[in-house]
Amino acid sequence: MSATLESSVPMSRDRHDGSSEPSQHALIELRDVAKVYKLEEVEVRALDGVDLTMHRGDYSALIGPSGSGKSTLMNTLGCLDRPTRGSYRLDGIEVVNMSADQRAKIRNAQIGFVFQNFNLLARTSALENVELPMLYGKRMSAHARYDRAKELLTLVGLGDRLDHHPGQLSGGQQQRVAIARALATDPSILMGDEPTGNLDSRTSREVIEMFRQLNEVKGLTVILVTHDLSVAKNARRNIVLRDGKIIADTRDHEAAAEALRSSSD
């Protein structure tokens, strides 16, 4: 199945045009962010003094071994969790002190997620899975939700699979449904947490190509979490984590790979 985007679904926000020059306004700003978990008598610093800036239209990969802090950083960036210390400004708004409900609202408006295990509702059609996030955002009629979901499934090459349930779809097709669902509320940021982890190599390449096109053609800010350097090299920016710290932040993939190897020695 081709990874080419099959139709032009309008994105309402002003977006970066896909060029290598970022806009001056930072979409994401982290300053001295720490996340500490207490396990009985032991403190675990999952993040330890992280500073990070991302602009609209960036395409970044967070890479590192298990326990490096990359998933904790994604959860922080995705407003799924909040840091123990520090500042996180999303599109100029401080989110650290927000309540869980406030973070849920900004998450629904700004961020789309794609997970390794797809996280689709098994007894629900592809179309209904994509419609689901729209039930929690701005008010939309049932007809508008249907049209939007159909557009997005057509965009990812599944216009002829609207009524199929996840069990009737291949792994790659299920991940395409997940990508369409992530785009349902017209987010500024698309996050992928090991999005190719359960896919074969050919399908993985197709999914990563779709992320690239969404970044370059639609102008979405894309953030991938991965331990796979072959996936990370598709991003324009590689951010390497070790022990909760950023040890490299570079557009040179070989430099990122070397930092990862050096940190494991």
Q: Care to describe what's here?
A:
It is a single chain. The protein has 265 residues and is α/β, with parallel strands linked by helices. The chain has a single domain, classed as P-loop containing nucleotide triphosphate hydrolases (Rossmann fold). It contains 8 helices and 10 strands. It has a 6-stranded mixed β-sheet, with helices on both faces. It starts with 25 loop residues before the first strand and ends with a helix. The model is unreliable at 10-23 (pLDDT under 50).
Structure in a nutshell:
The chain is α/β, with parallel strands linked by helices and 265 residues long.
Helix content: 25-40%
Task: Estimate nothing, just give the exact number of structural domains.
Answer: 1
The helix count comes to: 8
Main beta sheet strand tally, sense and closure: 6 strands, mixed
Task: State Rg.
Answer: 18 Å
What's the name of the CATH homologous superfamily? P-loop containing nucleotide triphosphate hydrolases
What is the CATH topology descriptor? Rossmann fold
Question: What does the secondary structure layout of this molecule look like, with pairings?
Answer:
Elements: E1 26-39, E2 42-55, E3 59-63, H1 70-77, E4 85-90, E5 93-94, H2 100-110, E6 111-115, H3 126-131, H4 142-155, H5 171-182, E7 189-193, H6 201-216, E8 221-226, H7 229-232, E9 237-242, E10 245-250, H8 253-264
Parallel strand pairs: 3-8, 3-9, 6-7, 7-8
Antiparallel strand pairs: 1-2, 1-4, 4-5, 9-10
Helix pairs in contact: 4-5, 5-6
